[in-house]
Amino acid sequence: MSAIGRQIFKWQVIVLFGAAVMIRLVLAPFLGFWGDTNLLVQYARVAEQKGVLRVNDINISVLYPAGYLYHTYAVGTVLKNRLRNADTYDADGMTPNGISIAERVGIRTIPIAYDLLIAAVLLAALGSYVSPRAGQWAAALYLFNPGVIVSSALWNYDSVPSFYQLLAVVFAGLALQKRRDIFWLLAWVAAGLAFTMKAQAGMVVPILAVVTLFTRRVKLIVMAPIVFFGVVALVFSPFLLAHEAIYLKRAYLDSFDAYPVTHVGAYNLWALWFQRPVSNRVAGLTFEAIGRGLFLASMAWLSWCIWRRKVANGTDGFRCSAIIFTYAFAAPFILLTRMHERYFAPTVAVAVLAGLMDRRLRGVMWAFSVGFLVNMLTIFIQYLVEVDDTTLFHQEMHFGIAVVRFFCCLLIVGAFLWLTCKLPSLLEPVQPMVDSAGNVPRAGVDRVRKPV
Q1: Which pTM value belongs to this model?
Q2: I need a labelling partner for 122 at 20 to 30 A (CA). Which of 6, 54, 336, 346 fits?
């Protein structure tokens, strides 16, 4: 812990984090994606003025889970005297100026704070496993990615579940590396918290379950689901005790029926072509069924690679965990239908972790980071064009965005295909090369690692 403290309180790190905060706070008062932000403010208004159990009063089909709702309640409590009346939202909430600047900045401090937490985890993990310089690079690559900045300072709260997903990855890596049950249980606690923040964060669960199962430790296999569902039940306990089962349905089940099209802004396999209904068929199969089939096949391939390389019983677990979950997080975004651009956020953080642990993954790290950046910025530009009816050259701009989307999709899908083909070799046990003096250097940005 003292070593981690020394890393965090270095002047370079303080400047790094300070600059990241300043950029975000400067942008936070602007409208940005005001529709999403206004809705998040409505959660804060309802939670503070009527109580968290009255969230069902919000007039939308799909609700955010309880884990995030408690965050909005905290913001609402702080801004208690500056919140507008929750009952006026239907009249003014869906207008650009339907919320105050104080409300807008207040609700955006949640994802901004979690951006810093994600960077701190990357700094500590890579600083301990690789080198302090690698940790600083990771924090900088994440914090100053324009896509990440836009997502947190101008849009939604995706950094919140991303933080808990990253924690699950790190704890799983520590469990594989050190073979201690406490880290496995902490990984499942983090996975449970991630799931209570956003339904899509459940992408961490299947492969975490596979790796846990491959340990062949009965006690651990039994405890893992108990811990996961215990955390979820605890977070949702106020709604369960109040018999508000409809909230669970609106927070999770209804989200699977929302946006029935092949892609919703995500630059993935389906965005190589124009948006289509998921019910369209090819060879008798709907687009949605094809996407789910591809995703299940990718998870089966990843599971086989984990088993074949005996990752659960290896000695290089931290690096393998980063690789495994980079693939596991990228697969649903790239292969499934109905994906939003923001759902790629956790993959970017974990790809930075993997890329700075294993130099063979640098290309994937850059492809995913740049792909997310371009995806977020082009969607933002398109949003501004559609909102501002006075913008000139609408057709030309939409054509340009379509071209950029096509090549960005090729970049992301191509990196994913490369990762798919290279998984068996990437998961082979590796060790640092011994230098001329017989010393084993730490794995790092400039170190060469080779198969055992």
Answers
A1: 0.92
A2: 336
